[in-house]
Specification:
By secondary structure, the protein is α/β, with parallel strands linked by helices. It has a single domain, classed as Class I glutamine amidotransferase (GATase) domain (Rossmann fold, 3-Layer(aba) Sandwich), CATH 3.40.50. It has helices at residues 12-20, 26-37, 54-58, 81-96, 105-113, 137-140, 203-212, 214-219, 226-242, 245-248, 250-259; strands at residues 2-7, 41-46, 66-69, 99-103, 117-120, 126-127, 130-135, 151-154, 157-158, 160-164, 170-174, 182-187, 190-195.
Length: 262
Amino acid sequence: MKKILIVEGNLREENQSFTDGGIKTHTESLKDSISYYTNDLEIDVANPSSDSNISLVAKDLEKYDGLIWGGSSLNIYSNTPEIRRQLDFMKECQNKINKILAICWGMQVAVTVAGGDVKKCTKGAHRGIAHNIEINDHGLKHPIYQNKNKIFNTPAFNFDEVVTLPTDATLLASNKINDVMSTNFKAGISNVWGIQYHPEITYNKMISLIHFRKDRLLKNQAFKDEDEIKSHVKIIEEQNMLSNKDQRMTELKNWLDYLNAD
């Protein structure tokens, strides 16, 4: 049986607020999505920002066949002690785990550790949904996009973006908001598949997150007022009605197939 590590990107306090608000944590959502494809995995979970034993976990990373690093509400350029702990842990992971799926915040952490740069988005943000992601010629040949539509919409929530890729990284997909919507690169012994969106999270959860973060989103001017929030939520609801679960989660399935390929 393959053994993987899931890394939780949010602080423990943020996850508690999710739980108190009746929303699954990103790790819980990821576990649910994995179980749609397989229950034949041994899964551990680590939180580099909040776990007091993270240094012990880092010493034993060779036992994992793969790693999935999920999303977070953090901004990597804030450079807090909690973020630095995540960067340090990612470096350990890249030196000890062969196969990494880095999702949204996870991709930003992986790219930063490998020498790339992340900054605040300059062309807007993804607020629960990303529209018209287009897979390029490299992406069409990459296993992450096997059986994926060339142009697709997907759940996404990000205000930051990768602006410089690591040396020798391959760009796989883009849209009008983010030039880097997915990438593949080697770092240490790792083969990193990075995506700036959330195939593992449902549109319904994204809608819940918008309502949960309403005050925060209005304060940082992600939305101008509550009417705009209502209109935007309607767009996501309409997409949800059109969405196909298998198409939405293709990247996760393909990574799990890659994990089990040998």
